[in-house]
Design a protein that fits this description.
It is built from 19 helices and ten strands. By secondary structure, the chain is of the alpha+beta class.
C-alpha cells in the first residue's frame, strides 16, 4: 500500500510541474523532460516490478526500464497533462488514482469487439460460445478506457455516447496488439465476418432481417479502446427543439434487425441451442471422424458465403447491381456446400441439390416452391459463371429473387443444423431417402417440428405452422 501511495504522490508532483507547460500539444519527449518524471519511473518500478507487470516495461540498452510511451500515452497521463496546460479543469486526484490502477492492476486480455448494425434491448448479454453479445451502458463503456476522469472534459466522451447501447459481439483475443489504427481492413487474416461466423450465424438464423458487422475494434479494458468514430456509421436525426426550432443530432445508423425486450429470452434460448449444434458439427460428436471433418468444412464454407453476401447487402433494395449476380452465386455455393454428397456425379449435382433442399421442407406445396427457387438459382448461376447476363429480368425482379434465395438459404442452413448432429450418416443420404420414403420424411418432420416448437426463431416457418 505504501508503494502505491508513493506512486500517487510522485504523479501528483509531476502533474503540478507539467501543468506549467505552454498550451500547445506536447510531445512525449517534452513530457519526459519535466521535473519529477524520473521520480515517477522509480515509483512505478517499486510499485509494479517487471516480474509482475512486464507489459509496462521496454528494453533500453540491454536493460528493462519502465516504458515511457506506455506510461504516458496508453495510461492517458500525457493527455491529462496537456489538458491541464490548456487550462482545462482536470480532477488531478482522480487522474492520479487512475494511473496507480493502470500500473498496479492486472494486465487486461485484449478482446475483439464487433459492432453490429442491429438494435437490441438495454441489458442484452447473451453467450455465444466463446463470444458474448452485449449492449453496454455509458458507465460500462467509460470503464473500458484508461483515465475515466478525462471522459467528461474531452471529446472522447462524445465518441462513447455514439456507441452507448449499441450491440457488440466481443471475444478474448490474447495474441492481438491494441492500437488506435483502423482495424476493419485487416489483411493479417480473414475478414471479420468470416473469422467470427460461429457467433454471427445464430443471430442471422434467428431473424431474416439483415444483420451486418459495421466496425471492428480491439479493446484492452482499462488500457486502450481503439475506438475510431469514423468507423461507426452515423446518420443525422432532426427533431424539434426549444422554441420550435429544428435541431440536428448525430446518431448511430442502424438497420432493420430489431429485437424488442419481450423477445430477448427467446433469442437467448435460440442462440444457446444453435451454438450447441454448431459446436457439435465443428468438434465432432461420434467416432465417424472422416464424415464429421467434412461436415465441419461444409458448414464453415456455407456460413462464410452467406456472411459475404450479407456484408454487401444493405437492405432488400440496397445491392449494387454489378454485385447482385455475385451475391446470387454466394447463396448457391452455400446450398451446395451443405447438400452435396461425395457420391454425387458431376452432371447430376443441380438436380440433387434441388431435391435435397425440398426434402428439408414439409408438405408438397412448400417442397414444390423450394424446387422452383433452386432451379431458378441454378439457371442464374449458370448464366453468370459463363459470362452472360440475365436479360429477361428487371432490376426489381432480380432483387426480389435475390431476397427469396437469401431466405431459402437461411432456412436450409438452420434445418441442416437441426438434423445433422443427430445422424452419423451423410445427411444427403437421409434427404435422398426422404424423397422416396414416407417414414424417413416423418423422421425429418418430427425433428423439425420439435425444434421449431421448443426453440423457434422469431418467425416460425410457414411449412411448420401449416402442419
Amino acid at each position: 500500500m505504501s508503494k502505491h501511495l508513493s506512486l500517487r504522490k510522485a504523479v501528483l508532483e509531476w502533474l503540478e510541474y507539467a501543468g506549467g507547460l505552454s498550451p500547445t500539444p506536447q510531445s512525449i519527449v517534452t513530457l519526459m523532460l519535466q521535473p519529477h518524471w524520473e521520480d515517477v519511473e522509480t515509483a512505478v518500478a517499486a510499485a509494479a516490478p517487471k516480474e509482475e507487470h512486464p507489459d509496462l516495461y521496454a528494453k533500453v540498452d540491454g536493460d528493462w526500464v519502465p516504458n515511457s510511451l506506455t506510461l504516458l500515452e496508453e495510461s492517458g497521463l500525457a493527455e491529462a497533462a496537456r489538458l491541464i496546460a490548456q487550462g482545462v479543469p482536470v480532477p488531478v486526484s482522480e487522474v492520479a488514482d487512475s494511473f496507480v490502477t493502470f500500473c498496479t492492476g492486472p494486465a487486461p486480455v485484449p478482446e475483439r469487439w464487433l459492432l453490429l448494425n442491429g438494435t437490441f434491448p438495454q441489458g442484452t448479454r447473451i453467450p455465444l460460445g466463446r463470444y458474448t453479445l452485449q449492449t453496454f451502458t455509458a458507465d460500462e463503456l467509460r470503464q473500458t478506457v484508461p483515465m475515466p476522469a478525462l471522459n467528461v472534459v474531452q471529446r472522447r466522451s462524445r465518441d462513447l455516447d455514439l456507441i452507448t447501447g449499441a450491440p457488440f459481439l466481443h471475444v478474448p483475443d490474447p495474441g492481438r496488439s491494441v492500437t488506435r489504427r483502423p482495424t476493419w481492413f485487416d489483411f493479417t487474416g480473414p475478414r471479420a465476418e468470416a473469422q467470427h461466423w460461429q457467433a454471427l450465424l445464430p443471430l442471422m438464423l434467428w431473424d431474416s432481417e439483415l444483420l451486418r458487422v459495421d466496425s471492428v475494434f480491439t479493446v484492452a479494458r482499462g488500457r486502450r479502446f481503439d475506438l475510431n468514430p469514423r468507423g461507426v456509421p452515423t446518420t443525422i436525426q432532426i427533431y424539434e427543439g426549444r422554441y420550435g426550432r429544428e435541431e440536428e443530432v448525430e446518431i448511430r445508423d442502424t438497420g432493420d434487425f430489431h429485437v424488442p425486450a419481450a423477445y430477448l429470452p427467446a433469442l437467448a434460448d435460440f442462440c444457446t441451442a444453435i451454438s450447441a449444434k454448431i459446436d457439435a458439427v465443428m468438434a465432432g460428436a461420434t467416432h465417424e471422424r472422416r464424415i464429421l471433418n467434412r461436415r465441419a468444412r461444409r458448414l464453415e464454407r456455407a456460413a462464410r458465403h452467406l456472411l459475404a453476401a450479407y456484408q454487401r447487402t444493405y437492405n432488400d433494395d440496397g445491392v449494387w447491381e454489378v454485385e447482385a449476380d455475385e451475391l446470387h452465386l454466394n447463396y448457391v455455393i452455400a446450398l451446395e456446400a451443405l447438400l452435396i454428397s461425395p457420391d454425387d456425379k458431376h452432371e447430376g449435382i443441380a438436380e440433387n441439390i434441388r431435391s435435397r433442399a425440398s426434402a428439408l421442407f414439409l408438405g408438397p406445396d412448400h417442397q414444390k416452391k423450394v424446387m422452383a427457387i433452386v432451379q431458378r438459382a441454378y439457371k442464374a448461376r449458370s448464366i453468370y459463371v459463363h459470362g452472360d447476363v440475365i436479360k429477361d429480368q428487371t432490376e426489381e425482379a432480380k432483387l426480389k429473387e435475390l431476397r427469396t434465395l437469401r431466405l431459402l438459404t437461411l432456412q436450409v442452413i438452420l434445418r441442416w443444423l437441426v438434423l445433422t448432429p443427430s445422424d452419423t450418416e451423410d445427411l444427403a443420404h437421409l434427404l435422398d431417402a426422404a424423397v422416396q420414403d414416407t417414414g424417413r420424411e416423418n423422421r425429418i418432420g418430427q425433428s423439425l417440428r420439435a425444434f421449431f416448437t421448443t426453440t423457434p426463431p422469431r418467425n416460425r416457418p410457414a411449412d411448420i405452422t401449416a402442419t
